[in-house]
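// run 5 | inverse folding | seed 20
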C-alpha cells in the first residue's frame, strides 16, 4: 500500500449515476449536480473528478441495463441516485428494490464503492405505496453496508424558489443547496479513503 498525501495520492474518479436530477434537467452545462459538486470539492483541495452519468427519465430498470457500459473500470465510487421515476410511474417497489440491489452488487463486485442516494415517493401514490417504497434505500444500505444519503432533494424541494416550475427539478441555485447539504456526507467518505 502506497502512502497517501494529505489530499490524495491519485485523482479520485467518481460518477454521478442517476436520472434527470443528476443529469441537470433544463440547466446549462456545468450547473448540474456532479459539476457543482466537483467544483466545490476542488476548491476545498480534493483531487477529484466526478463525471455525469445521469439520464433524464431513467428508471432503475434503465439504470441497471446501462450500468456496465456507463461506469468505466477505473471508477473509484458511484453516487447512485435512481428510483424517483419508478415512484412517479407507480412501478412496484419490489422491482425498484431488486434493480437497485443488483446495481449495488454489480458495482461492489467490480471493487467500486457505492454511495446510495435515497428518494421519497410522492404523496399522491398513497400511504401503502410510500411505506413500501421509502424503506428500500435504508434496507439496501444496511444489507450491503454502503453509506446512505437519505433524500437527494433535501433543502431544495420544500422551497419553491429553488425548484423549476414543474416542482420536481431544482434550479441552479437549488442544486447549489443540494451540493452544500451533500458535501459533509461525501467528505466523510473521502476522509475514510485517506485513512485506509
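// decoded
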Amino acid at each position: 500500500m502506497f502512502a497517501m498525501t494529505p489530499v490524495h495520492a491519485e485523482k479520485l474518479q467518481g460518477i454521478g449515476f442517476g436520472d434527470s436530477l443528476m443529469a441537470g434537467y433544463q440547466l446549462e452545462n456545468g450547473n448540474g449536480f456532479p459539476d457543482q459538486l466537483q467544483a466545490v470539492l476542488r476548491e476545498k483541495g480534493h483531487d477529484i473528478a466526478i463525471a455525469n452519468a445521469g439520464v433524464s427519465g431513467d428508471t432503475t430498470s434503465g439504470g441497471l441495463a446501462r450500468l456496465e457500459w456507463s461506469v468505466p473500470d477505473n471508477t473509484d465510487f458511484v453516487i447512485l441516485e435512481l428510483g424517483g421515476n419508478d415512484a412517479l410511474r407507480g412501478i412496484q417497489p419490489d422491482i425498484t428494490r431488486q434493480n437497485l440491489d443488483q446495481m449495488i452488487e454489480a458495482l461492489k463486485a467490480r471493487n467500486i464503492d457505492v454511495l446510495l442516494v435515497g428518494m421519497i415517493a410522492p404523496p399522491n401514490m398513497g400511504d401503502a405505496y410510500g411505506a413500501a417504497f421509502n424503506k428500500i434505500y435504508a434496507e439496501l444500505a444496511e444489507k450491503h453496508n454502503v453509506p446512505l444519503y437519505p433524500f437527494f432533494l433535501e433543502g431544495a424541494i420544500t422551497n419553491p424558489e429553488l425548484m423549476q416550475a414543474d416542482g420536481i427539478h431544482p434550479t441552479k441555485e437549488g442544486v447549489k443547496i443540494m451540493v452544500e447539504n451533500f458535501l459533509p456526507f461525501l467528505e466523510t467518505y473521502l476522509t475514510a479513503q485517506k485513512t485506509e
